[in-house]
Here is the input.
Amino acid sequence: MSFWTFLQQNWIEMLTLVRQHLALVLISTFVAVAIGIPTGILLTRKESLRNPVLGIANVMQTIPSLALFGFLIPLPFIGGIGARTAIVALVLYALLPIIRNAVTGILGVDKNVREAAVAMGMTDHQILWQVELPLATSVILTGVRVAMVICVGVATIASAVGAGGLGVYIFRGLRDVGNTNLLLAGALPAALMALAADFSLGLLEQRFSVEAKTQRKQASILDKVVLAVIAGVLVVGAYGTWRAARSGTQSVAGSARVIVGSKDFTESVLLAEIVAQMLESRGVTVERQFELAGNLPHDALVAGRIDLYPEYTGTAFTAILRHPPMTEPRAVYEQVKRDYSEKFNVEVSQPLGFENTFAILVRGTEARRLKLKTISDAAPHARRWRAGFGQDFMSRADGYPGFSKTYGLKFAEQPREMDLSLTYIALASNKVDLIAGNSTEGRIAAMDLVQLEDDRRYFPPYEAVYLVRKDSLARVPVLSEVLGKLAKAITTEEMRQLNYEVDANKRGPVDVVRDWIKREGF
Amino acid sequence: MTGVENNPLVEFRDVSFSVPALASPIIADLDLKVDQGEILVLLGESGCGKTTTLKLVNRLLTPTSGQVLVEGKPTTEWDPIRLRRRTGYVIQDAGLFPHFTVESNVGLVPSLEGWESARVKERVVELLSLVGLDADKFAHRFPRELSGGQRQRVGVARALAADPPLLLLDEPFGALDPLRRASLQKEFGELTRRLNKSAIFVTHDLREALRLGSRIALMQAGRLAVVETPENFLNSTDAHARAYLETLQLRGDAEGLAGGDR
Here is the structure.
């Protein structure tokens, strides 16, 4: 599909994402300006506060955005899932340049001018408003410009906490191997937005420079336009802030609806969508908080921001509960069930019937040429191969270190650590020779990749289950019925097919799930 | 010269000023009076404390010990804003506000004092003509559109705006070329006499001191070395004063200068 066709088919959704993205950026910048400039002014008055506050703002900027989101989710009032959390994080990132430039701009006012102002008998207030701020405006605006461009960039990660924005396309595009349209549709408008913000605020800066202010001339039409645009942005920002503040804490407790979460890959979205549609057909109002990145779904579940999300027993067992890997499926399931009940007051549903374990994949051509069936078959060839693994696989207890030891694997070079979805592309395009993918990945066959059998039973079981808060089960009894129906309802082949429909045939998850539910008769 | 019945306009009483970073005080044991209508020149080399002395008058600084009295009241008891609005202040590159027109610069203190805008405008025109600038031509210019001499004139006009009894000037003509400096000095001397203003004038230029001062206070390392009228200063036997006088090429040149404009 050409990019143009993609745009024609998706322009409404794209506009929505652009609007969400813009709202995130404008509201965050507005709030950051409202906090940052007064703080900057205060710091020029209270020298003892200057270094500590700038230090804190500096540290804020160094926190990786996903880590910051994870930290924010359980917090009351400012935390949770959705736009508000994203805005809080964006504001924290935007503060530093704004505060720093307000301080630099004001302190940078010519010492003689400042002294003359004091000696004329101007009050501190008058000096600030009539001398310092007018002379510092363009430096302060530079800070706002930098902050806004940062916001445009960081806002793409906001989709990880369900805040929408163009990041939705970018993350989908990254997962959806080879779909450059999605990547372009996300990255291009974001880049344009950053350029536009940079350019328009740069223009504004020039308008407010001392040189421009001291040009004797009437206000031009451009001035009026610029002023109108600023006024517009301020109004939109203020209104958005008000709306965001009014939307209140989205706590699940006490409300009649169910909030379904999912991780940020197709299969998790599909499984969440299945529950969502089945609940809806039973008259329950469902809110979807899909595509949450990393450990965010777990944090959100424990914090009560979502009611349930699909998980895998092996992931829960090793990555969340931090048990050493085990290979016996029943034992793993029982242990997970016990621990979640005790530690998190969370119920683990019956397994859905399929596993999504690590699939060690090689190119089909290679597998046929070397007659590879199992990982042990491949071990002797490994020293001529390069491997590429997702960050997940490199870091987790049941990942690379144990894997290479179990099979005595030695690669030609240290494995490349990269985004999981990119490893498929890397393998297919001969950049690496072996990857650890997902066993239910829909396009394993389509890309002519072959899964090698885990003949030494290294990988723990990854049975798909739903994790549900117990208080949600008590509040919405129909949840138990729905989850009961889904026990053993999906085979590995079926899951692969569903994934394939979305990833390769580009159908929407909502459609794919609706058809499947109809077929199954749920 | 000092009238016993009149309070001096400014009086330094045993004033010292020091900062923690420096071992020796910037000003030490300073006693000095400035009378109504007098132009006192603080003369001395860089770092001798003359600018600091000036800043103690309008409370940009406060003494570490001793008192500075303005109109009989210690500066520490003045509301600093009131004190400063009653004190005109001119510094070397004028310290004009770059984003204000000449008119707004000159009219600043009257505006702060809440004058009506028509009255402020009138006053600005009056002041500009007083310092030899055509209001029609200059009122709406910005400082960067002026020459150094014009800026300095605007600086003086701004300092005079609210008709303060006292002017403080910190090397106001220091950055100008000699010809322009001489003509501004002359005009300034005439102006202060005409308006009967008192002034404290900081300079390191002996010619300027002799030309403008009704008394010259020579400062040396934070202390007063000599306080004399220009005539007596020329005959001073003080070593520092002699050193200064020797910088003048010809004695006759100096004789001609002292009181030459008076």
About this structure: The two ends of chain B are 17 Å apart (CA to CA). Residues 210 and 230 of chain B are 5 Å apart (CA to CA).
